[in-house]
Amino acid sequence: MTSSPTATPKQLFTVLLAGSLVLLVVHTLGRFIYTPLLPYLVADNQFSAPDGAAVATWNYLGYLMGAMLAIRWHRIDQIRFMLPLFLAVHVLTTLIMTQTDNLTVISTTRWLNGVANGVVFVQAPALILEWLVLRNRATMSGLVYIGVGAGLLVSSGLVSGTADFLEGAQRWWPAALVSIPLAWWGVMQLRKLDVPVREHDDSGQAITNTPLIDRASIPLFLSYAGAGLGYILPMTFLPLLAKIELPDGHFLQDGTWMLVALFTIPAPWLWNKLGAIMGDLPALRLNFIIQLAGVLAAVLWPGAIGLVLCAVLVGGTFLGTVLLTQRIGRALHPHQGPRLSAAMVALYGFTQMVGPWLTKQWLDSGGTLVSAFGIGVAALVFGLVFAFFVPRPDLWHSRP
Question: Which domains are seen in the chain, by residue range?
Fold first, then answer.
């Protein structure tokens, strides 16, 4: 038997930092910076609130398609080629956003940016997880998502810090300029990772593909679908809701997104730790309950109290849902690796695309934005219910 390769603390730090920066670039400077930008772009008359919801839907459609591409091209050699390619696509599409006020061009560009986000958001963590598994350090995998939390804070600062002297398409310049060096350094580090190209299981045996869908994974997929639809409404529309509900100049108009960012930063470490202490599956169920309470607060207490509770509780949980579900999925099907991660992100991406689309239909039919958050409440209840039908991985593998 060959011994597992080892990793020094410096190597672990470098790999996790590189993954964090790559996710910061595509998932916050690509996707979530749109959330604090949206009220300003609407106020600049670049487009209306319903059009803004439609633009978000195009971005999420691209994310879904990117994740599906990652299912098809999941081998390590393919990941090494696609990561730099789609990070370049992210940079290019963000630069295009600085140059146009045309709604069709904006929608098309945000769709393509979503494709890049979907590919990279699957492939970077999956590559890092495989590298960590080979070194018996899989429990550290959730730390890569700290980049998303830090990126929310960065995106909030970039938007609010430049709000007074940028307008319309110019508001995308900070995201574009910050993305370039971070994307380049991060992907250069990840391309160096020593991960075997062939498919293998945790014991090193060559494997063949088996079905992704079975009695163990179906409830997990359904639960994850509920999570995707449940969290995306506050993560897309919370600052816009604050602008609608609060008087002009209220500190929470920008402060809600800042709260989300602040509570997202420690969330990967917290849920990584809770998963290790109480088990990933019980931690996931607790995560759903807390996240549900956050979205419900925005519905039950319109105004400052509901906005703050939503920002804090959703910001502190949604990344935990991602890392815990990914780990549970791999524990149920350890041979699937990046394919399983890509399938989950594709499903997550589909439900995230549905959320803004449903919101647009609701607003166009005369509904209010706060009542649209009820869609998120129902989705999280759905996800929580199915989380109780997911089997424990050890019991699943010990069945006769």
Answer: 9-395 (1.20.1250.20)
